[in-house]
Write a structure and sequence with these properties.
This protein is of the alpha/beta class. It has helices spanning about 25-35, 85-95, 110-115, 120-135, 135-145, 150-175, 180-205, 205-215, 230-235, 280-295, 345-360, 370-385, 395-410, 415-425; strands spanning about 5-10, 15-25, 45-50, 55-65, 75-85, 100-105, 215-220, 255-260, 265-270, 300-305, 315-320, 335. A hairpin with a 6-residue loop joins β1 (about 5-10) and β2 (about 15-25). The chain is flat, with a radius of gyration of 29 Å.
Length: about 425
């Protein structure tokens, strides 16, 4: 028999209101045991909740009941809206745990049942996980689009197109003795496959942007020692996040600070000053600094003497620092004083433009490496399906079937149990 789950689904206690969620075949019985009455479906009723063992009143609150399958999980679901004190919630949880057939939910278990009951596909579940974890406006918009089925709907359109093309190919195989009919349907099928391949390639081209928004943009502050990197990091962060010293080589490791720019989540990296050194510890810091800067989305090259960035960082935004001491700024450089704040607003505006350019304004369809890999496999099979099979159309049909399978894996129709185990472990309890 399927267990009935219960958990606190609202935020950290104490709070103004706490929401306990119950899902499973015994949800209605649990409400009857605590409240003595089951409210009409989807109608909130106010009432007392009592311990079924002792009859002691535990709290008064709102009670709701959602019969399955018209519920969030596809099962019978009940919600108890209580006062958000720790003792109140603990008492009601103890009363629920004493009821037969009920047990506390594990992390992500409500969402997993929603997936198992066809309420959410894998892409929508991933969007929901990203929505819970979203820290910036861009991440919120992108995650909400994914959780609302934007990718799922597009994948379904692609799948329908592939299946219709596959039907034409198989019809051509069935009528292979009639060369006119066979050639005509094959030509039509190939044309459809070519259009679908272009759509998949367009989505793949945009995948890097989606993953960048989800993971957050990385901005590396690089340059020679004592160029003002840590001072700038502290000013951008609005706090003393890095040690500032007149001694060169103070920063030995990469320091990270997280903030939001232009609605995008941004990680600022304060890196070790780049210079030749015989100090083994500092040399390791320089190596790490250069590696992190090369992998960053945006690099700010800070220098108070106008030296050019190394070839690996030729794409960097060049920033002339300490203009409060010397106002001369070379052409093509931005001038700032991290100490006084002069020019920093212009630099922030430049960073916001870069964040907007890299993140874009519209949510991307592909936001995770797993999704991108599935789409790459589907595209690969489509490219193969567009080849010349010398009349062996059954080979073309097989590649189309494999492309359909890759799309099914993308939204979780097949072979995703290991993905589900890893994904749901990232959810909080009660979700």
């Amino acid at each position: 028999m399927i267990d009935t789950l219960f958990a606190l689904s609202s935020g950290r206690l104490p709070a103004g209101v706490a929401v306990l969620r119950i899902s499973g075949p015994e949800a209605a019985a649990a409400v009857l045991a605590l409240a003595g009455v089951l409210p009409p479906p989807r109608v909130a009723r106010y009432g007392a909740l009592s311990d079924p063992r002792t009859g002691e009143e535990l709290d008064r609150g709102l009670i709701l009941f959602f019969p399955g399958p018209a519920s969030a999980t596809g099962e019978d679901v009940a919600e108890l809206h209580l006062h958000g004190g720790r003792a109140v919630v603990a008492a009601v949880l103890r009363a629920l745990s004493a009821l037969p057939g009920l047990r506390p939910a594990e992390a992500g278990e409500f969402t997993r049942r929603a997936h198992a009951n066809g309420k959410l596909d894998l892409a929508e579940v991933e969007g929901l996980a990203d929505l819970v974890a979203a820290e910036s406006e861009a991440q919120r918009r992108q995650a909400l689009a994914l959780a609302s089925g934007a990718l799922s709907r597009r994948v379904e359109d692609w799948r329908v197109g592939l299946v219709s093309a596959l039907a034409l190919i198989e019809a051509g195989i069935d009528f292979s003795d009639e060369s006119d009919v066979s050639g005509e349907v094959t030509t039509d099928a190939v044309a459809r496959l070519a259009r679908l391949k272009d759509e998949l390639l367009a989505a793949l081209t945009d995948a890097a942007r989606g993953e960048r928004v989800r993971d957050g943009l990385v901005v590396a502050i690089s340059g020679p020692p004592n160029a003002g990197k840590s001072t700038l990091l502290n000013r951008l962060a609005g706090r003393e996040a890095a040690i500032v010293s007149a001694l060169p080589g103070t920063t030995r490791d990469v320091l990270e600070v997280h903030l939001e720019l232009a609605g995008q989540a941004v990680t600022l990296l304060d890196t070790a000053g780049l210079r030749e050194t015989s100090d083994l510890v500092e040399a390791e810091g320089v190596r790490r600094a250069l590696a992190r800067a090369e992998g960053a989305d945006v690099v700010l090259w800070l220098c108070d003497a106008g030296s050019e960035p190394p070839p690996a960082l030729a794409h960097a935004v060049k920033v002339r620092t300490k203009t409060d001491r010397d106002a001369a700024t070379p052409e093509g450089w931005m001038g700032i004083s991290a100490a006084t704040g002069a020019g920093v607003d212009a630099l922030i505006a430049r960073l916001e433009r870069e964040a907007d350019r890299l993140g874009g304004r519209e949510p991307a369809l592909i936001t995770r490496e797993r999704q991108r890999r599935a789409l790459e496999i589907a595209t690969l099979h489509l490219e193969r399906a567009l080849g010349d099979f010398g009349g062996h159309e059954e080979l073309r049909a097989e590649d189309v079937r494999l492309a359909v399978r890759a799309l099914d894996q993308l939204i979780g129709r097949v072979d995703v149990e290991d993905v589900l185990d890893a994904l749901f472990s990232t959810f909080c309890i009660g979700k």
